[in-house]
Amino acid sequence: MSKIYYDQDASLDAVVNKKIGIIGYGNQGRAQALNMRDSGLEHVSIGSIQDASMDQAKNDGFDAGSIEEVSRESDILFLLIPDEVMPKVYEQNILPGLESGNVLNFASGYNITFKKIVPPEFVDVIMVAPRMIGEGVRELFVNKKGYPAFVGVEQDHSGNALEITLGLAKAMGATMKAAMEVTMQQETMMDLFAEQATWPMIENILVEAFEYQVKMGLPPEAVLSELYLSKEPAYMFEKMADVGFFKQLPLHSHTSQYGQLSRFHKFDREPIRSFMEKAVKEIENGSFAKEWEQEQANGMIEFNRLRAEAFEHPINRIEEKLKDQT
Ligand code: NDP
Questions:
Q1: Which residue, 117, 103, 94, is CA-closest to 153?
Q2: Partners of 79 in the β-ladder
Q3: Could you say which DSSP state residue 70 is in?
Q4: Contact at 8 Å (CB) between 14 and 164?
Q5: For 188-207, what is each residue's pLDDT tens digit?
Q6: What is the DSSP string of 93-105?
Q7: Which of 30, 80, 106, 128 to mutate to test the pocket of ligand 1 (most atoms within 8 A of CB)?
Q8: pLDDT tens string 20-67
């Protein structure tokens, strides 16, 4: 079992007097910075390139400067720029300003797990990784509900890294809900597993269900509505989280419950397992990370082709047609 920390397990004492530098004021950066300021951390500043995010940070009332400047002046650095640009920015603009006792906080384990970033031994390396999009991080904090996060200590130079991690998680609103302790390697695996195994399979099931039923002669608009446009499945997912994965079943009709339960065990999971095994192998042996790095070096040609292909699927036209009608 993972250790789970709540508000009463964490204290702001370890972080309240620290200078905190948020590197990157995007989805996560803005939400986390605003939450920490509202929690009473007064020394939060933003490091950014000169862009709309920098303007936004200033409009929100933060001190904002270049990434080099803020990195040099901060005790705790939040690395909240996209994972794929992080190693280069770290090497060029952050590493030169690091001092003994500084803290590097990541919202994703990716660059540490795959050794794209190897911090010096004189800093703490920690993770507070919200399981929530930036908008939710802010909204759920403002509404005093909090959101779950994975927290972990990768390198404890100060001997105080866990207290600092929990203090930040509290200031950001994560311990209000639940901060679950995992290693950065575990966080990376769960993240990539969802992206490369679970979701591609779910997406395939939905696309296949659409294509199959359309071939049967059923109206495509109605099929999409049944599959997800009605938002009934979204509502079911919410009930799975609130009531229980199986325990939400009584909310469905008896015919539906019998249909789901009687067919559940008739499904052959072997192809699912072998798809998962392949994905895990490619994650563990680093071949996915290598392929992705190569793709970026090639100018994202395949990435753009895949996205364009997805946006051309007949599903898109039906969605477009139904946009204003449902
Ligand atoms: P964003 O895509 O929102 O980017 C963050 C900021 O980085 C933006 O201000 C962006 O500027 C800036 N930026 C982009 N490219 C560069 C560059 N080359 N040099 C300097 N700054 C740059 O990132 P996210 O907030 O989505 O992700 C940040 C971290 O949080 C990642 O580690 C991610 O894995 C993690 N995370 C993200 C979650 C999410 O839901 N988004 C959830 C949990 C963790 P501009 O706007 O000009 O592009």
A1: 103
A2: 23, 106
A3: H
A4: yes
A5: 999 999 999 999 999 999 99
A6: IIGGG--TT-EEE
A7: 80
A8: 999 999 999 999 999 999 999 999 999 999 999 999 999 999 999 999
